[in-house]
Predict the structure of ABC transporter ATP-binding protein.
Amino acid sequence: MTNISLDPPSTATDVVLSVEDLSVSFPTEDGLVKAVRGVSYTLRRGETLGIVGESGSGKSVTSLALMGLLPKSARITGSAKFRGEELLGKNDREMSKVRGKHLAMIFQDPLTSLNPVYPIGKQIAEAVLVHHEVSKRTAWDRAVELLRIVGIPHAEQRVNNYPHEMSGGMRQRVVIAIAMANNPEVMIADEPTTALDVTVQAQVLEALEAARTEIGAALVLITHDLGVIAGHADRICVMYAGKLVESGTVDDIFYRPRMPYALGLLGSLPRVDEGRDARLTPIVGTPPSLLNLPPGCPFRPRCPLAQDICGEEEPELLPIAHGHSAACHFSSQLESASATDVFAVTSVDVDTDLVDVASTELATDVDTVSEEGA
Ligand SMILES: Nc1ncnc2c1ncn2[C@@H]1O[C@H](COP(=O)(O)OP(=O)(O)O)[C@@H](O)[C@H]1O
Ligand SMILES: [Mg+2]
């Protein structure tokens, strides 16, 4: 687990990734889909930044843009710098020197990242060999070592396994091992545990943490589930309708949220510390279409606090306190609000059904293979 950093002073050399006013839109037959709208964030050396938001809020497109992995049709503006070097606009050949070596990405579904016809050891060793001139033997030994770091038991035997011989959780560890193969400075994990069983999720997050600590990389941890981020991030960015709507330390977001959507996410999270009597307050409604967004705050139709101004002007992401920003016309009134104050209380005790709704919103394709049966 990482230490929760209270917004340490950042120096220019500390910043490994800086994203500034990044926007991405896709021309479609129906019109322009504005998937990402002016996202800015910085990632400092060794820290974990959580990006959280419902499905369709632009989390993946933001990361794919800076990795150079979007389809050619995507219109990208703004800036994304790795250690001061602009990534946007690099061609495939230039990007392939950066990807894997300096910036590595881990996707939701390990099967799409692994080749079914090769043993995992060969795939990890190849990742090592792409960017380093070492012997095959050295690369293979490194593969075994990496498997050990991500917590795969009997690594020297498992290294010969094919992907289909492993459970989903074990496969995701292999993907993490590949991502860390070249000691990248930045790892971006996009919903790394969403396809996994809840018990396996925690183990994979531990593996990711072990990998990050081992190589001293900074991590962008993307998820729709605020609960996943709680014990693993230093800072959090909340995304809604293609924009950042709140950013701050974990404590800022969990204890002092100032944007109703962030409050709502917290309200729909089962809290162990509040016991069985705690009420869950789900956010009703669905996120807006990113095609022809109406003026005003995109959260307005779902916001219990909405006033006239919210339908007219989209609130900007503005600083409230040091390192803490929110985009809400009424953020100053939310100083000590709780989700139950703002959202209607459902007068039901926390029961398993509700917990399921809140915590597995996207859990399609659940991996039910237990780690013991791997
Ligand atoms: N290639 C594409 N063409 C058109 N729209 C896209 C494309 N890729 C993503 N989108 C749209 O961009 C929005 C953001 O998607 P995404 O970043 O994948 O969301 P998230 O990762 O937060 O679930 C969605 O509305 C999605 O439909
Ligand atoms: Mg996504």
Confidence is low (pLDDT under 50) at residues 1-8, 345-374. The CA atoms of residues 266 and 339 lie 7 Å apart.
